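Ticket #4471: structure export looks truncated?
Reporter: QA, pipeline team
Priority: medium

Steps to reproduce: submit the single chain below to the structure queue and open the exported record.
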Amino acid sequence: TQSGSVSLFLGPSDGLHSHSLLLDEERGRLLLGARDHIYLLDPDHLARAPRKIHWPAARDRVETCKLAGKNLECANFVRVLHNYNRTHVYACGTGAFHPSCAFIEITGRREDGVFQLLSSTVESGRLKCPFDPLQPFTSVLTDQYLYAGTSSDFLGKDTTFTRSLGPPPDQHYIRTDISEDYWINEARFISAHPIADTYNPDDDKIYFFFREVSWEGNDKSILSRVARVCKNDVGGLRSLTNKWTTFLKARLVCSIPGSDGVDTHFDELQDIFLLPTRDGKNPVVYAVFTTSSSIFRGSAVCVYSMADIRAVFNGPYAHKEGPDHRWVEYEGRIPYPRPGTCPSKTYDPRIKTTKDFPDEVVSFIRFHPLMYRSVYPLTGRPVFTRVRVDYTLTQIVVDRVLAEDGQYEVMFLGTDVGSILKVVSITQENWSTEEVVLEELQVFQVPTPILSMEMSSKQQQLYVGSSEGLAQVSLSRCNLYGQACAECCLARDPYCAWDGHTCSRYIPASKRRARRQDIKHGDPASQFHLVVLFGVKSNSTFLECIPKSQQAQIRWYIQRPGSERREEVRLDDRVVHTNRGLLIRSLHASDAGVYICVAQEHTHFTHTLLRLTLQLVTHGQLDSKLKLGEEPTVDLRHGTESRQRYKDYLRVMSSPFRSLEEYCDSLWLEKGTFCRFNRCFHHFCFLSVI
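Actual output as written to the record:
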């Protein structure tokens, strides 16, 4: 189905239950993992009929699942979809609490090419895919290895971060040590990303993010973490065999500093997005958090730098000591090579693999996986918060947009009620940031949590998944901002600009002239040319100003020549306020000045719709100009034609009851003639003398 700029794929009548998305822009395909099905969709036209693979759980597994007390979860929910190579995708599903994985072959065109599950490749999905379709989980496939943060048992209590697959013969598991709960304890994994640390590929790491249950003495809390392992970690030789020997973790803090010294913490990590930079080693980390408190409900977005994250991992380790076993800073001797570094020529060419690590290094990291210092956001506080609202944030993607006055980051934030917030971050001159909510779109009519989001920079589309279906939303919806220059500028949307006729998509390389934006200040007045309206004394004139909102109240103000004070226009029988503007029946000399039309919405929000300068001339001045024949501002070289245009102008000024659009159409003059029109507002038409 399609509604406006939102296209929906809803799937079966009982719900789609989408749990994984794989967007492949290079090959022009979009895969959706759902309940018992994998769909192949057209990313350009989501509403087109998809191709699908039916992949249900085995019947005996479904029966066993129901006997164990489960019901709706007893199906195969596809939660893993990753490109393995150019022709194959690796997929895993929950299999009615008995996870399994397989390869899918995809070749040729989307419409009629090969799209099939290779049954001969079906294998156990344990430690690759969760048992429970609702359990938070993450995975990433790189260099033919699958890294996954998941549960290792039916109940979902034992959680671990693993590596599997890999090119033959290296296909054994590497995992975290579940015998020690201070490694990972009842974790809910959020995301995982391969990130280079140096110029040497041997130093590459997998950074992953999760939240977990943490114990400080007898105090139980939920904390958010960033952790990392080396990609070339193969486990220890005598200790930590087939377990990570480079695993380190640190706390991610997202809090609002309080005036009384008590911070408001958002401790439960919900989603992560890495915004690439020119330096591939240093993406910007955007994170969505929610509060743990049942009393205070809120969400926040915090932003971190990889430099700060690495600095924490290069800092002091934490150590448990004392009768209450609290974490304190470790002040003893640190073995060599530094625990957590990768075996590479960067640090010590004698150490080829992690099996070459000295026993004391392996032993140290086994008991000291936590860093003492925490990672704090770049600004020291969240860049965006939502508190005391009836929803929480669940997902985030970020787009970097080039506008007329600079570069901006636009956040798309999914919620647990099926809506999306579009927010732009604006840095002011004093380096403070302002977050402006550009739009709040209800994507799914049924309030349902948004489970996944993918952004296509190529197609300028956002794909949003939930249990109800999959939605395709355009990143730019400029038509929402009305048909006036002021409304387009006030929106402060870096995707949109006024092109002289409509509010349309801003393209930096466009040759279209007069593209008007003001994202930083949202001041439409700064985008207008000087507008001057000439009136003839004793004649009538009409200043048109029509608000887009029907609830808005219009007030007119005038700033007289030589005065800095703005006063409200006095209304009487001569000066009449109509629903289309201000009618002045007979112009007096005191009517000259700058007129400002201000709209006040029912929320008491006010904004300026129109600003123009009204100058007065007498009949004698006009007659003398007509007799002069040639003036710098009046081109009479065309004789009768120019005189006729003056008469048209006088007719306009003396007949306020015709629409100004008709005047604009009838008085539109060729370039180089005596006057032109500035059409910034759709309903405003002004004459300005050149």
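Status: closed, not a bug. The export was complete when the record was re-opened. Leaving a note from the reviewer for reference: Residues 390-527 form a domain with the ligand-binding face of the semaphorins, domain 2 fold (CATH 3.30.1680.10).
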